[in-house]
Design goal:
Blueprint: H1 10-23, H2 36-43, H3 47-59, E1 78-81, H4 88-94, E2 99-109, H5 113-119, E3 127-136, E4 139-149, H6 153-157, H7 166-170, E5 179-188, H8 191-197, E6 204-213, E7 219-228, E8 232-235, H9 244-253
Parallel strand pairs: 1-8
Antiparallel strand pairs: 2-3, 3-4, 4-7, 5-6, 6-7
Helix pairs in contact: 1-3, 2-3
């Protein structure tokens, strides 16, 4: 019996090709995509498969869901995948945007208990805190509040924090971000956040908490990133196959 990775469904392969075509400018914002019949002939599949493709793209916020009409490319939040660990700068460049920052401040702080626990610090140990507004092609879309172990302060302070990626530049020091866990919540903008991002108080935001480690499992950062809900959407892709082992184990354990 052959074992290995399950084959990616055909509709998802087509969806990824269409998504790449959209990102590469083959289809402009608001432009209609080819019909189900045309795409079926183009990819050699049934109209049912193309409908699955459109359903997948709709769920990702890439195309419209108008019944009885040609699907249109949506100008909406930029989709940020949560299944791949990318720095903000690398993600921005991958979608054709220019990343930059506006540094609010850097300082050594006695972290709150939640941050201390995430960083694995003992009582009384300090963390190095960096706060920046992150921009896509000049537009502020995120307030980044990141805490690092003290040992990372020196290389970070040597960077141009308004122009450079901390994550990418730390790789030059042999410090590699490998694994991360995220939590996401919806919040309203506080007065301070609203002022920094140039929005109204109470504007809907998405706030993520990220804890990242290196290949040895050492914690490198604990970051609270607050995004404009209208500018960014997080995409999580699930697979039945990914949970097959855990379901079998659960069944056996009972």
């Amino acid at each position: 019996m052959t074992t290995g990775q399950p084959r990616v469904p055909r509709y998802r392969e087509i969806a990824e090709q269409l998504r790449e075509a959209i990102e590469n400018g083959e289809f402009a914002d608001g432009e209609s995509l080819p019909s189900e019949h045309h795409l079926g002939e183009r990819y050699g599949v049934s109209r049912g498969t193309i409908r699955q493709t459109f359903a997948y793209l709709r769920a990702s916020g890439i195309v419209s869901s108008r019944q009885g009409a040609r699907r249109q490319v949506l100008r909406g939040p930029r989709a940020q995948p949560m299944t791949e660990l990318l720095s903000f700068s690398r993600w921005a460049r991958s979608i054709g945007e220019t990343p930059s920052s506006r540094t609010i401040g850097t300082e050594f702080v006695t972290p709150a208990p939640e941050v201390r626990e995430k960083l694995g610090l003992t009582q009384g140990e300090q963390a190095f805190h960096v706060e920046r507004v992150r921009l896509l092609s000049g537009a502020a879309i995120m307030l980044e509040s990141t805490y690092y172990p003290e040992r990372l302060a020196a290389p970070i302070l040597a960077m141009d924090l308004d122009a450079e990626s901390i994550t990418d530049n730390l790789e030059d020091y042999g410090i590699v971000f490998v694994d991360a866990e995220h939590s996401i919540e919806a919040i309203g903008a506080t007065a301070r956040t609203a002022e920094l991002l140039g929005i109204h108080i109470g504007t809907p935001l998405l706030r993520t908490m990220r804890r990242t480690t290196d290949p040895a499992g050492e914690v490198l950062e604990c970051s609270f990133d607050t995004y404009l809900g209208s500018a960014v959407a997080f995409v999580v892709r699930n697979s039945v196959a990914a949970g097959a082992v855990s379901r079998v184990r659960s069944k056996v354990s009972h």
